[in-house]
UniProtKB/TrEMBL annotation, chain B:
It catalyses: Ni(2+)(out) + ATP + H2O = Ni(2+)(in) + ADP + phosphate + H(+). Residues 6-251 form the ABC transporter domain. Pfam families: ABC_tran, oligo_HPY. PANTHER family: NICKEL ABC TRANSPORTER, ATP-BINDING PROTEIN, OLIGOPEPTIDE TRANSPORT ATP-BINDING PROTEIN APPD. It comes from the Archaea. It comes from Candidatus Syntropharchaeum caldarium. It is a peripheral membrane protein. Keywords: ATP-binding, Cell membrane, Ion transport, Membrane, Nucleotide-binding, Translocase, Transport. GO terms for biological process: peptide transport. This is Nickel import system ATP-binding protein NikD. InterPro entries: AAA+_ATPase, ABC_Ni/Peptide_Import, ABC_transporter-like_ATP-bd, Oligopep_ABC_C, P-loop_NTPase.
Amino acid sequence: MHHLTKITAYILIIFVAISINFALPRMMPGDPITSLTDDPTTGMPVIMDEDIKEEIRSYYGLDKPISEQYTDYLKDILKCDLGWSIYYNAPVAEVIFERLKWTLLLVGTSTLIYMILGIFLGAVSAWKRGERGDLGLLVSVLSIGSFPSFFLAMLFIILFGVKLDIFPIFGATTPFMEYSSTFDAFKDVLYHLILPASTLVLTSIDGPYLLMRNSMLGVLGEDYIVTARAKGLTEWAILKDHAIKNALLPITTVIAIRMGFMISGAIFVETVFAYPGIGKLLYDAVSFSDYPLLQGAFLIITLIIIAANFIADMTYLYLDPRVKHG
Amino acid sequence: MNLLKIKALRVYFPTDDGIVKAVDGVDLNIKREEILGLIGETGCGKTVLGMSIMRLIQSTTLTDGEIIYKDRDLLSLSDDEMRKIRGGEIAMVLQNPMTSLNPVIRVGEQIAETIRLHQGLDKKAARKRVIEMLRDVRIPDPEKSVDSYPHQLSGGMQERVMIAMALASDPELIIADEPTKGLDVTVKREIIRLMKEVTAKRSMLFITHDLGAAAEICDNIAVMYAGELLEHASVDSIFSEPLHPYSEGLLNSLPERGLKPIRGISPSLIDTPQGCRFHPRCDYAMEICREKHPEMVKLEDGRAVRCFLYA
C-alpha cells in the first residue's frame, strides 16, 4: 500500500517534470520563426514570405494546436526521441546518452566516495568531539570544502597535470589509443578519472561530513546510547550498532537533494578537465544556443534527480522501521 | 552481608556557572537480596548516584570516594573490567523506556545483544533465551513480540522489555531508575508486581520519587536531598514514623495524607544552603541548623538520620 502510493507519486512527479519541460520554452516570448527572421544581432534581417514561414512551422509541427504538440512530445519521449541537436546534427537522445555514461561514472564514483568518506569522518569527528582529531578534521574539511570546484580543478591541473605530470589534464580517455585488453582500457579510464573525481570529492565532502557530525552528536546524546553503554557494550559496538543507523536517517534525504548540486558541480569540473560528460555538454549547448539539446539534457538531469530521490525514499524505508509500520 | 558499599561518594560536575555537587558525600550499603529505595525530589542527585555506580557519567566529572562491589572498588577498575560488570553483574533499568530503547532495532535483538555479550550464547540460543525472558516479564505472544520494534509496543510493554533487558544477564544487582515514571496507575501496579517478583533473589536499588511504589516494593528506604542522604530506615518505620522533617514532609505530600506540599523549592546543587541544607524549608529549624551542617546520626534501632533534632 505504502509502496504503491510512493510509486504513484513518483510517476506523477515525472509527468509534471516532463510537462514543465515542454511548457517552459513555449512560455518564452517570441517563437522560433520570429527569432529566425528578426534576429537583431545579425543586423541582416532574413526576409521570408508567409509561405516559407508556414512551411517551416509545419515542418517543426508548430502549426498544430498546443494540445497536439503536447501529445506528440509525450509520444516522442516514450520512444526516447528527444529531438534533433542543432550543433551536433544528431538525435539529442543519442548525443546525451553518449555523454551520460561519463557523467554517471564521474558523479557516481565521486558521490560514492565522498558520501562514505564524509559519513565516516563525520562519525569519527562526533565520537571524538572537542578533541584534537575532531578539530583538525573540522578545520581541514571546511577549508577544502569552501574551495570553488573549478578553482581546485585548475590547481590540480597545474600541480598534478603540469608540474608533476603524473595525471592527464583533459578528457576521459587517451585520444586515438588502441587498447590491448579491457584491463588496459579500464586503467586508462581510471587514470583520467582520478583528478576530476578527487576535485568533486574534496569540494563536496563538507556536506555529508557536517551533517553526519551534527546528526551523530544528537544521537550520542540520546537515552538509548546510555542504555547501550549500560549493557556493557564496547564503544565501537555502540557506534556501529546503535549510533550510526540512527544518525544516517536524516542524511539519506539530504544525499538525494545534493545529487542536483553534484550535477551542477560536475558542470564546472567537466568543463575545466574537458571531461566529455553531460555537464560539459550543457555548457556547450548553452554556448551554441542548441535549444533542443538543452531541453533534452534538462529532462535527463531532472529524471536522474528524481531517481536519486526515489532511491533515498526507499533507503529511508529500510533504515527506519517507524516509516514502514506507521 | 553487603553486596555494595558506597563510601563518601562525591560526584561533581564542573559547569560554567559553578560546580554542580550532584552527589556530595553519600555513604550507602546495599545488602544481598535487599531492595533499597532511594527517594527524593527531582534534581536531588539520585539518578546521578545510580549512574555513577555503573560509571555511566561523562568523563569530565570529578568523582571521589569508593564504590565497593564484592571487595572491588568500581571507581578504580579499568574501563574493560568495568564493562564486564556493567550490564553483567550489575544491570540498569533506565527511565523513559520510550527513549531508552533504540527505535531502529527490534526489541528481541536489543535484549539478545546483552545475552550474547555476557553469556556468550550464539545467535540462535540467544533468541530462544530472549523469548523465555519475554515470557518471564509476561509480554503476550513472545514469539511474535521478539521481532517487534519499540514503537509497536505500548509504554507498559516497553517497560517490560527494559526489565527483561536488565534481567538478561542474570545480574546480582539491579539499579532501577524511575521504572514507573509515566505509566498509568494499573500498568504501574503490574510493573511493580513484576519487579518484585523478578528481584526476589537479587538486590536492587530502586530510585524513585513515587513513595507509593517505594512502599510497595522496598525493604529499606534512603531519603536523598540536595546531594546527600537525610534518613535511612526500614520501609515500615519510615512510613509509620518518619524522623527527619523532610521525610515527614514528603509523606505529608502524599494524596492519602492530605496532599500538603513542602514549602519552598529544592535548592540549586551549585549553591547549597549553609548549615543543614533543608533548613530554609524546615518547620522545625533552630539556630544551630543555620550554622552547622548536621552529621548522619545512627540511632539504636538501626536507623540513621541527619538532623539536630536527634543529635
